[in-house]
């Protein structure tokens, strides 16, 4: 007879993922132990193993859930006007990152700890996210940019670099601050310096996050 799955199975997995992401991000994936994770979650180590066979399995699930959630948010954007679609994507990325600093740090620093096939699956998701942004830039930008693959790639990755600035340096985690900064990035892309002047947020007014 098949084992019945508890009603709160997915909720408990989500709780373990969230707390494990914090432990992995703060302690380091290599140094964190399943015993430490269990203590932080307030459960036994056996309970952790009930949901995840290993640290690697837990890390993979954290990153897969994080990236797939972002990908689905971007795929759901249906704005027909290219500039509005680009602006919406910038907003969705920063809003998806809200409260997910630990997962974002793991994506940057710990993905390489996983087996090759699992890395490939996660990198495929990353590529889809990048491609969605690249296409949004092509649609909203000048025709010449779409014809120059090198400049287009550089522009696309520069956009992600600007978005990561918020994660790395800004202390204001409010939804309003994230939307304002996303709009600043969009205005900079589409309007150059004049777009920044028209943006609702001033960089000099934005609180700065610690450097270390």
Could you explain how this protein is built, in words?
It is a single chain. The chain has 212 residues and is mostly helical. The protein has a domain at 63-205: Tetracycline Repressor, domain 2 (Orthogonal Bundle), CATH 1.10.357. It is 73% helix and 0% strand. It has helices at residues 9-27, 34-41, 45-51, 55-75, 82-97, 101-109, 116-140, 143-147, 149-169, 175-198. The termini are far apart. The relative contact order is 0.10. The mean pLDDT is 86.
Strand-helix topology:
Blueprint: H1 9-27, H2 34-41, H3 45-51, H4 55-75, H5 82-97, H6 101-109, H7 116-140, H8 143-147, H9 149-169, H10 175-198
Average of the residue pLDDT scores? 86
Order of helices and strands: HHHHHHHHHH
Unreliable parts:
none
> What is the CATH homologous superfamily assignment of the domain at 63-205?
Tetracycline Repressor, domain 2
Cα-based radius of gyration, to the nearest Å: 20 Å
- What is the distance, rounded to the nearest whole angstrom, between the alpha carbons of the first and last residues? 53 Å
SS element count, helices? 10
Key descriptive features of the protein:
212 residues; mainly alpha; Tetracycline Repressor, domain 2; 73% helix; 0% strand; elongated
């Amino acid at each position: 007879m098949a084992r019945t799955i508890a009603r709160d199975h997915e909720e408990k997995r989500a709780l373990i993922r969230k707390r494990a992401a914090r432990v992995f991000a703060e302690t380091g994936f290599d140094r964190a132990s399943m015993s430490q994770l269990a203590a932080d979650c307030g459960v036994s180590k056996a309970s952790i193993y009930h949901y995840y066979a290993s640290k690697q399995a837990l890390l993979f699930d954290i990153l897969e859930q994080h990236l797939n959630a972002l990908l689905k948010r971007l795929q759901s954007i249906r704005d027909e006007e290219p500039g509005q679609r680009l602006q919406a994507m910038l907003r969705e990325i920063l809003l998806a990152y809200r409260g997910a600093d630990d997962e974002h740090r793991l994506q940057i620093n710990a993905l390489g700890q996983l087996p090759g096939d699992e890395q490939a699956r996660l990198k495929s998701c990353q590529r889809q996210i990048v491609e969605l942004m690249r296409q949004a830039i092509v649609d909203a930008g000048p025709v010449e940019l779409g014809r120059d693959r090198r400049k287009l790639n550089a522009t696309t990755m520069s956009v992600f670099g600007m978005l990561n600035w918020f994660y790395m340096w800004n202390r204001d985690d409010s939804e309003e601050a994230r939307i304002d900064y996303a709009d600043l990035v969009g205005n900079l892309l589409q309007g150059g310096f004049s777009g920044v002047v028209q943006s609702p947020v001033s960089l000099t007014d934005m609180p700065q996050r610690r450097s270390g």
